[in-house]
Amino acid sequence: MSILSLFVVIPVLMLLGLWLSRNLNQVRGVMVAGSTCLLLLSVWLTVTFVQMRGAGNTDAMLFTYSVPWFKPLNIAYSVGVDGISVVMLLLSSIIVFTGTFASWQLKPMTKEYFLWFTLLSTGVYGFFISIDLFTMFVFYEVALIPMYLLIGVWGSGNKEYAAMKLTLMLMGGSALLILGILGIYFFSGADTMNVLEIAAKHNIPVEVQKVFFPFIFIGFGVLGALFPFHTWSPDGHASAPTAVSMLHAGVLMKLGGYGCFRVAMFLLPEAARELSWIFLILTTISVVYGALSACVQTDLKYINAYSSVSHCGLVLFALLMMTRTACTGAILQMLSHGLMTALFFALIGMIYGRTHTRDIRKLGGLMKIMPFLSVGYVIAGLANLGLPGFSGFIAEMTIFVGSFENADTFHRTATIIACTSIVVTAVYILRVVGKILFQKVADPHYETLTDATWDERFSVCCLIFSVAGFGLAPLWASNVIGDAVGPILQNIL
């Protein structure tokens, strides 16, 4: 069995442990033990992967393992990782670990909540290690299904509507995906669903690629907040409980960009080249529209949700630029945004748990009342608007420099338009920080509120350390990602 299978085995053992737990302390113990093991495993995998690449191992995928699952359709449980998968696994483990502590005080039905939360994380881990199309799709569905209950039962606000809207739109994307996957399988002539083997055969006719490329790209793009299929995202984020918002925006939405690059563009390269201009227009709209929409929101979660639409749109935008620098920046942006938005949603959930409102018009003076959470919010905001020293600056600069490498007018115009989102982001971030932290106290009752507890401080500090760490020392991640992006782009171009 491959070491990668532990990323699925450990969450399954966590599910068993949670099911057997009889009290809150046992539930917390299982979650802390399991999430810690996953974090340590992902760190070990990252270090080992870097060492193997440094030693000269140039295989497309490392730690590969395959066993037949359903032979009539040549479906196999096939796993393997490259640099992109490794950083996504590291991101996922950080978010699951910190999300556990962010949900430390969650009630009621804590056990049931963590059961569904762990099932969601199982799907995420399985998706990132899979190199078989059908296995990847199965884990993709496992990651989506728990969202309905996590939002519909433990959410807030108009949670039933948000949960149903999210589920229907993502399942609609899944329907397009299964059609696209079957089209790739039957027209590739490779008699396999292994991504690497299909790419090596390169047998899919161009006209067929043009039919199935939109199915795959839109199917994954729905989860990646592609305009105009993004509308589920703000409602889903706003209604989800704190840790679910962290995992949802921090990791789950990254499945969209990852799938677009790994499946749609890698396996259907001619269609990607010929049809990219259509989706480039849509992603440019996503980047600017998401930022402008965030400016007019009054709910903290909606502000961050529309910010996520803009930043995830930037991921797809950079991938469609099809330069090595831009695509490396896209993966860095997935990593950076995952950490930043998880930090944002964690802090918003903690503030909401005390003030019982997310309306910025009813908040004020929080820096005086809860200084730790307020300073954390300022740091998250500065990282989000791309301040040098944080991960957001490295990712966005890499994207825009790489995008401008395309010498034609169309691509450079789209890049300039997308760059305007930086200014708009500064507007809504600084507006919110000034409004809720530094104006006078909006409600005398807020004077009695307490600052962050130990579990909240631990979660926030871990995320701040990660955001600053990737911002100050990004070279290793950039090199690992760039080495993985190169072979994919060679197949596309």
TrEMBL record:
Q: Give the record's family classification.
A: Belongs to the complex I subunit 4 family.
According to its UniProt record, where is this protein located?
Endomembrane system; Membrane
| Protein name, UniProt field | NADH-quinone oxidoreductase subunit M
- EC numbers, comma separated: 1.6.5.-
The NADH:quinone oxidoreductase/Mrp antiporter transmembrane domain sits at 131-414
- Organism of origin is Xylanibacter caecicola
A Gene Ontology molecular function term of the record: oxidoreductase activity
* Predominant place of localization: membrane
* Record keywords, A-Z: Membrane, Oxidoreductase, Transmembrane, Transmembrane helix
| Enzyme category, top tier | oxidoreductase
Residue ranges crossing the lipid bilayer per the database entry: 6-24, 36-55, 75-101, 113-131, 137-154, 166-187, 211-230, 275-296, 303-322, 334-352, 372-394, 414-438, 458-477
Indicate yes or no for the key word Membrane: yes
**Membrane topology label:** Multi-pass membrane protein
Instruction: Please tell me whether the keyword Transmembrane helix is annotated for this protein.
Output: yes
Which InterPro entries does the annotation name?
NADH_Q_OxRdtase_chainM/4, NADH_UbQ_OxRdtase, ND/Mrp_TM
